[in-house]
Amino acid sequence: MTVLFSAIFPIIFIVIIGATAGKKLDLHKTTLSKLIVYILFPALVTDSLYTTNMSSNSMLRLLLGVFLISLILYILVSWLRHYFKISTAIYKSLIATTLHPNNGNMGLPLIEFALGSAGLERAVIYMIGSSILLFVIMPALLAGTSFKNSIQMIFKLPLVWAMLLGIILRILHVELPFNLYEVLNLLGRSSIPIALIVLGMELRSTKFKITSLELISLNLRLILAPFIALCVGGIIGLKDLDLQVLILQSAMPTAINTAVLSTEFGGEVNQIVRTIILTTIFSFLTLPVILWLIN
After folding, report:
1. Membrane-crossing residues (predicted)?
2. Treating both helix axes as pointing N-terminal to C-terminal, what angle do 269-294 and 88-99 enclose, rounded to 10 degrees?
3. What is the model's pLDDT at position 252?
4. Taking the CA of residue 199 as centre, how many other CA atoms within 13 Å lie in the half-sphere pointing to its CB?
5. CA-CA distances (angstroms) from residue 201 to 27, 51, 175, 260, 277?
6. Which among 197, 106, 198, 100 has a CA at the least distance from the CA of 142?
7. Which of 48-52, 54-58, 132-136, 141-145 bottoms out in mean pLDDT, i.e. has the lowest?
8. Phi/psi of residue 238, each to 5°?
9. What DSSP letter does each residue of the chain carry, written as one string?
10. Looking at residue 244, what is its pLDDT?
11. Adjacent-strand bridge partners of 251
12. Which of 256, 197, 249 is nearest to 226 (CA)?
């Protein structure tokens, strides 16, 4: 429980700052969202890929696990849309809140405390795979464009080029001159608090309530997703620490960055913010159980 408090209290504190700043200062959420999507998160991904020491085999298996889990959840949400006749806006919100766990600013510190530095290294790779989905695939899904336009949109986003840059730097063992590594590191690290500030600004204008849609998202995100991760991990041959990280990262509450993307590309922002709050609160109950089970 101490691990969870250590991971969540800094998040809550920065969210409160964002809510206060949104009330007292003339800040524009759209501008901050663009800053995160187009500059800060690409820097974070490039930095992570450039500095990781994991083997290629472990990296690929973890990434495969992330993509398979997301695919299964996507198929399930699509079936729910068809069965319950869900509107397009709500469907987009369910996709965003179900597919994307908060594996960065909550998952990374939690896994570092629970599983050590080796676990943290694997958690970063999971975050990269999730970032590929969140910032490369999800904008196209939220925008609702055709396949051709979706591909064009993907390659217009800087994150795909940031991933390629990080991979090239790592493979070629490039030593960045003039402390440019520090530039990447500082930009990447700044993305988390700014995303939390945007969330706080959203919370200030959101009336919190629990509906059946939030409850559906909660069950998909906190209960079903880690179970799917256990099954997928077993199928693709993950064991020990790799499997533990896959399950634990998949059990995180909804990522705050889904609110950022929804503001930028479309979706029911208020529902997404309510889901973020609800899943984060209930993760205090589910994550200790998951930690106990994987150990």
Report:
1. 32-50, 62-84, 123-142, 154-172, 178-199, 220-238, 272-294
2. 30
3. 93
4. 27
5. 9, 33, 39, 11, 13
6. 100
7. 141-145
8. -75, 140
9. -HHHHHHHHHHHHHHHHHHHHHHHS---HHHHHHHIIIIIHHHHHHHHHHH----HHHHHHHHHHHHHHHHHHHHHHHHHHHHHT--HHHHHHHHHHHH-B-TTTTHHHHHHHHHHHHHHHHHHHHHHHHHHIIIIIHHHHHHT--HHHHHHHHHHSHHHHHHHHHHHHHHTT---STTHHHHHHHHHHHHHHHHHHHHHHHHHT------HHHHHHHHIIIIIHHHHHHHHHHHTT--HHHHHHHHHHHTS-B-THHHHHHHHH-S-HHHHHHHHHHHHHHHHHHHHHHHHHH-
10. 94
11. none
12. 249
Q: pTM score, two decimals?
A: 0.78
What integer pLDDT is reported at residue 148 of this predicted model? 61
> What's the whole-number average pLDDT of the chain?
83
* pLDDT tens, position by position, 196-213: 888 788 777 666 677 777
Whether 222 and 276 have beta carbons less than 8 Å apart is answered as no
Task: Judge contact between 142 and 261, C-beta under 8 A.
Answer: yes
Instruction: Show the domains of the chain with their CATH numbers.
Output: 2-294 (1.20.1530.20)
- CA–CA gap between residue 184 and residue 161 (Å, rounded): 14
Alpha carbon distance 221, 168 (integer Å) = 34
- Mean pLDDT in residue range 219-232: 95
Nearest to 125 by CA among 108, 150, 144, 105: 108
What whole-number distance in Å separates Cα of residue 161 and Cα of residue 43?
Answer: 10
Q: 122-125 — which CB contacts under 8 Å span 24+ positions? A: 122/54, 122/58, 122/62, 122/241, 122/242, 122/245, 123/245, 123/248, 123/249, 124/48, 124/52, 125/48, 125/52, 125/54, 125/58, 125/59, 125/62, 125/63
